[in-house]
Design a protein that fits this description.
mainly alpha
Length: about 160
């Protein structure tokens, strides 16, 4: 059974979105790596937002540093599982984009771990650990799914829209 054109369209949009996010994150990381030394910081908005080059050998906020092989395996597993769900024709458009965000972020950070043994981070808001676009995509995609599951779908199930 072939999927309806609407689902194929949303699958195509999700694929382009994944390619865009990976390309954006990797391109900016490339520029940062070419122009910054480790720990160097450039204030964009002084004391609020800086571009700072950090090498993250751990997970979020640097926890579990030096577990590169474990992170590679976990990332690969997450990518396979999300790819399976994205291949399903009956996923809503917003769920598909949330999953695509997580997949793109996981893939881009996996590329870093395979290339360097660490993740390149550069967005520094001074009140939060330094992160990158891939981290933001993972976080926003996850928050969207949580919101959808806990709030939006519950409202729809109760008949309140």
């Amino acid at each position: 059974m072939t999927s309806p054109p609407k689902n194929r369209f949303s699958q195509g949009i999700a694929f382009l979105y994944i390619i865009f996010l990976i390309s954006l994150d990797q391109s900016i990381k490339f520029i940062i790596l070419r122009n910054f030394t480790l720990g160097e910081s450039l204030p964009v908005i002084n004391s609020v937002f800086h571009i700072t080059l950090v090498f993250n050998k751990g997970a979020a906020f640097g926890i579990f540093a030096n577990a590169t092989i474990a992170f590679i395996l976990i990332s690969a597993l997450v990518i396979v599982i999300i790819s399976f769900f994205l291949s399903r024709p009956n996923i809503s458009y917003d769920t598909r984009l949330a999953l695509a965000s997580i997949l793109a972020g996981a893939t881009s950070n996996l590329i870093d771990r395979l290339r360097f043994g660490y993740v390149v981070d550069f967005l520094d808001f001074r009140i939060w650990p330094v992160f990158n676009i891939a981290d933001a995509a993972i976080t926003l995609g996850t928050l969207w799914l949580v919101w959808k599951i806990l709030i939006k779908d519950r409202k729809n199930a109760s008949g309140v829209v």
